[in-house]
Amino acid sequence: MKGAAFLKTRSARIVTVLLLVQIAAFYSLSHGESVPLTRPLSDFPAQLGSWHLVQTGVIEQEIKDQLRADDYLTRFYEMGNTRQVANLYIAYFKSQRTGQTPHSPKNCLPGTGWVPSTSAIISVAVPGEAEPVRVNEYIVAKGESKSAVLYWYQSHGRVVASEYRAKFWVVADALRYNRTDTALVRVVVPIADNQQDAATSAALNFVRAFFEPLRSYLPS
Asked: From the centroid of its chain, how far is CA 204?
């Protein structure tokens, strides 16, 4: 009886409407999505301001099979001759209708042994944007090692930190534009000698260096 009573509440009606909208967005459009062509991430610049490519990472086939991204990039860049290194990881998905969705670092990092100690959503002023963008900031630890992590979801020129807001925009864009494409962008900078502020500052500097070039590699 209690369950039947809940079904008549305003909350239940809102949930039902959202579910129906999502179903309509993902399954009622039988034709393919209208996703503009993208440039391959393998062509991403080796030089980004004062940062230069030092190593291209490798993603194992088992991880690729789980990830199911349409394009990806994992690289290590160094800032000048400072030995300050940043890892850039990008996973791009043309469509999320068939279950291909970005794996949130919020879940992936703990799964590989990295334990978050602090988390926040911060504002970052980047070139080409009138207003600062909002991104996730994490400090994670694995044994004696610590790293500063920044990540966000990017699609159609929009930067979103919240996983819930990202899902909302998937549904909204599917209904408005017949598109569910998105990219997960993540930066990891090791924290040396417990200098957390220095690592975070380097991560922000790196984001500002690659943010504008990245635009031309993701659909607008």
From this structure: 15
